[in-house]
Amino acid sequence: MLRVDVDEMAEDRSVLPPQFRGKVGEEGEEWIRHFVNFCNFKEYNDVKRLALMKVLLVSNAAVWLESQEALRNADGAPVITTFNELKTAFENRYKTPDILKYKSAKEIFTRRQEEGESCDNYIEAMRKLGRQIGADDRIVIYAVLSG
Length: 147
Prior knowledge:
Low-confidence stretches: 1-6
Radius of gyration: 19 Å
Mean pLDDT: 81
Helix content: 55-70%
Largest sheet: none
Number of domains: 2
């Protein structure tokens, strides 16, 4: 019985989303996608999702979270009370700025596989650029083939 619990805990740590600091260069869209997938996998309800997200937001992101928790509507009630409300606020705050999307769009059509870079790493980097600009798979495939 104890062995199963230890195995389950080790599994949780290996797939648990990392802490999100809210620093420049961190990808909020990727982080929240991983977070939601993890919560779906664990079948967490809204209350547990909200609590876990609050734990994983640290540093600058924790300061931002505290400012969100302080927001009140006209009735004096908190603005954010559910996971979906926090998720929406997070996405609005940490989504990739449009200027970076334009940069990624340029890069997807100009990037070439670097010497010593494996095919798998190159293709994954191109898929990531494609996700950032919302490109469909065919565009990414054409870009990979040209690079």
